[in-house]
Amino acid sequence: MSDVVRPSTLATQAIGEASRVVEGVHQLKLPVPFPLQFIASYLVQGRDGWTVIDPGFDYPPARETWESEAARMGLDLDRDVTRVIVTHLHPDHIGLARWLEGRSGAPVLMLEDEIADARHLWDPSRGSEAFVEYMMRHGMDPETAGATAKTTRLGVRLPDRFVPLQPEDRIELGDGEVRVMHTPGHSDFHFVLHDEARKLLFAGDQLLLKITPNIGLWPYAAPRPLRRYLDSIGSLRGLDVELIFPGHGPLFHDLDGRIEELILHHEERLSVMHEALMGEPVTAFEVARRVFPNDLSDHQLRFALAETLAHLEHLADEGRAERLDGAVVRYRAV
User: Fold this and answer.
1) Residue 69: inside a domain, yes or no?
2) What SS3 state is found at 46?
3) Nearest-angstrom CA–CA distance, 194 and 190
4) Domain limits at 250?
């Protein structure tokens, strides 16, 4: 595809600032302590108060941003927030939900099965031993696996009260309503919100511009995340949308164009992974070291391995690779 989807000219404010995007919808760019730089939280004004979509990562700079920008907007966090919607369980999206719930008393809404996954994943009594074993089984050395596992213990504290959503629910948002659309892949029960009347899509991490969401095969997740992701973005083709509100990066307008770019990206990644399998059987970690940059942090290494595993699983399903099970799992090209 020769054309490149361009970013919108809307919401170009600096990180740490809020900006009105369209009538009744503001974007707040909250800092995060990793390379993504910011998580976009959306504040939607309605008849009964404000709805917050994806409140951000729980650490002091993000809380300070909430306090300062809410005050600047005339938004009282103790009284004016009536609902918090979380698109998926990752800490940069769900992290501040408990804090905001405590401040406002607002209920937190998420897909019912994602709530169950979040309670499992962020259970403080759950150790990291199984994750270390998982990474070692796929080729990581014990020292790297141990260091990488430590980066997963982020201590996410979940809200006391969730309101479960179901796919295809219609919920009030602003002065209208949105449809809940289940879009798995980045997480098993990620969802987006489609405002059909206003032709808006609150996309979470499903559709990002300039970067691609991590599609990883994790030990706690369902199999075939890449297949499910490609199917779910394909199902959004032709949706009557004029503006996409992503969880990271710039807003954009060309939904179908970006979907085609993402599909092409994964086709190219699959080809790169397949090429890396040529020769003797190799582990997923060896493939990851061949196809990702050498200077990845321990935090980034787990994403690289999980993404490599998702692509190798997809190649095996397509008959382009063979998985060789054993104490250490290896793959070879077919």
Assistant:
1) yes
2) strand
3) 14
4) 8-122+157-255
Maximum alpha-carbon separation in the chain: 63
Question: Phi and psi at residue 220, in whole multiples of 5°?
Answer: -95, -5
Rounded CA-CA distance 249/229 in Å is 19
Residue 1 pLDDT exceeds 50: no
What percentage of the chain exceeds 70 in pLDDT?
Answer: 98
Mind listing the pLDDT tens digit for each residue in 73-105? 999 999 999 999 999 999 999 999 999 999 999
According to the model, what pLDDT value does residue 15 have? 98
Q: Are 194 and 251 in the same domain?
A: yes
Domain tally, the chain: 2
Total-model pTM:
0.95
Q: Give the pLDDT score at 94.
A: 98
Other Cβ atoms within 10 Å of 67 Cβ, number: 12
CATH of the domain at 93: 3.60.15.10
Tokens of 42: 């959306």
Residues 110 and 161 in one domain: yes
Q: Do 327 and 235 share a structural domain?
A: no
- Please give the C-alpha separations between residue 277 and each of 66, 194, 272, in angstroms, as whole numbers: 47, 40, 9
- Evaluate if residue 190 carries a pLDDT over 90: yes
DSSP state of 154: -
CB 276 within 8 A of CB 282: yes
- Domain of residue 138, CATH code: 1.10.10.10
